[in-house]
Write a structure and sequence with these properties.
two-stranded antiparallel sheet; mainly alpha
């Protein structure tokens, strides 16, 4: 089996631990090859040793949890004779969180300019932190700076298939150049303390995996207050009783630990003890009965005058719904206080709609006669132009005019076809 130099991953035991993809980039650069060439060599060596085919590796999933991350860690550990590369991933959450890594990892790259400058100043190659690949993270806890998501010159997103040490593929700008400003961000992102604590534990205990039922045990040990509707809507499917338990997302775990003010690692290791020590920062509110407000005399008088004006006017009659929306009043309240005027307005509206339909029928009949005569005499240049002129002349819908012209043309050609 081909052996590679046992390159030491950066930041083991810290929340600034290096991601597995960054380790592969640095290992490939150490052996003067690309990451794709390194992966092919490792796959071939693993097949010669075990006879089993490798699994597909997607760059975004290698830093997470599941089958691809487990396969990559196993093969790279065997080729480099190391045993701590599982700490460069979220392999400890395998079986706990949803396997599709939705809500856990980003599909694009983000980085901290201050961290890259610090790596260069210390004489080491810049590397990707695992924290930068998490979807919940948007700032660097060490420098309290906002993470960059695009090139500072051309504004293009950076691909996760390129190492962080390279320049922008589009414009060639250096990501940690002196003219790149560092935008401060004093407000921590959601669950920053929990995420840093989780990364410290997983990177310091490579190969360890949390119990799959830890979240369910914590939920069952919390007690009745958790069944409040507002809490259930905030946290999601964690507390729902199902035949097959739904695996939460990583963001859901962070929100869960933040909501109950308990340590995320302790929640996963000792769920019952974390539930007993959780300081519930909420109280179940007592919902007071909501009584309907009574309309004032001035508002009722304004509605009555508006109804009388709508009934006495000669113009367009609005519907009850449009009238209520225009005067900021509900339809049931109108029917409750002014039943006779509302009934008269609805009756007038119905007569107006019926009259409008009748006049449209007359116009359609006149337009049909016009189209048949126009086509029979051969005075039209094109069916499209004839239909447009007919619709404008008789004020009818364009689709109806097109149907009439088509029927007239078919009738003239001896193919009397009608379309409903």
């Amino acid at each position: 089996m081909i052996r590679y130099l046992p390159l030491v991953p950066e930041g083991i035991g810290l929340y600034e631990v290096e991601s597995l993809t960054s380790y592969l980039f640095r290992l490939a650069d150490l052996h003067c090859m690309t990451r794709h060439q390194l992966q092919r060599h490792m796959w071939g060596s693993w097949f010669e040793r075990t006879g089993s085919a490798r699994r597909r590796w997607e760059v975004m999933r290698l830093n997470g949890y599941g089958g691809q991350a487990e396969s990559a860690v196993t093969i790279v550990n065997a080729c480099t004779r190391r045993g701590d590369l599982a700490g460069c991933t979220l392999d400890a959450l395998t079986g706990v969180c949803a396997a599709n890594v939705v809500g856990a990892l980003l599909a694009s790259r983000q980085w901290c300019v201050a961290c890259l400058r610090e790596d260069i100043a210390r004489g080491r190659a810049p590397y990707d932190r695992l924290l930068w690949h998490l979807e919940v993270a948007d700032r660097c806890p060490s420098h309290q700076a906002k993470l960059s998501k695009a090139c500072h010159k051309c504004g293009s997103r950076q691909s996760i298939h390129d190492p962080i040490g390279q320049c922008c593929r589009r414009c060639g700008a250096i990501k940690w150049a002196c003219d790149v400003g560092v935008e401060p961000s004093l407000r921590p992102f959601l669950g920053e303390r929990q995420v840093c604590r989780l990364l410290e534990f997983t990177s310091g205990h490579p190969g360890f995996r949390f119990e799959e039922s830890a979240v369910r045990r914590f939920a069952s040990a919390i007690g009745p207050p958790v069944h409040d509707r507002s809490v259930a809507e905030s946290i999601g499917d964690v507390f729902h009783a199902r035949a097959h338990a739904t695996r939460p997302r990583l963001t859901t775990l962070v929100v869960l630990a933040e909501f109950f003010e308990c340590d995320l690692v302790e929640l996963m290791l000792y769920p019952e003890r974390a539930a007993s020590q959780a300081r519930l920062g909420f109280a179940v509110p007592t919902r007071s009965r909501r009584f309907p407000t009574r309309a004032s005399k001035e508002a009722l008088e304004r509605c009555r005058m508006a109804l009388d004006s709508a009934l006495s006017s000669e113009g367009h009659t609005p519907s009850i719904k449009a009238f209520a929306k225009e005067h900021a009043v509900s339809v049931p309240r109108l029917k409750r206080y002014f039943p006779e005027q509302v009934a008269a307005l609805q009756e007038r509206r119905g007569h107006e709609i019926e009259d409008r339909r009748m006049r449209l029928g007359f116009r359609l009949a006149d337009a049909s006669v016009y189209a048949n005569a126009y086509v029979r005499l051969g005075c039209f240049r094109s069916a499209k132009r004839t239909a447009s002129d007919c619709a404008k002349l008789f004020d009818i819908p364009l689709h109806a005019a097109r149907r009439m012209v088509a029927e007239a043309i078919a009738r003239k050609r001896g193919c009397a076809t009608t379309r409903g």
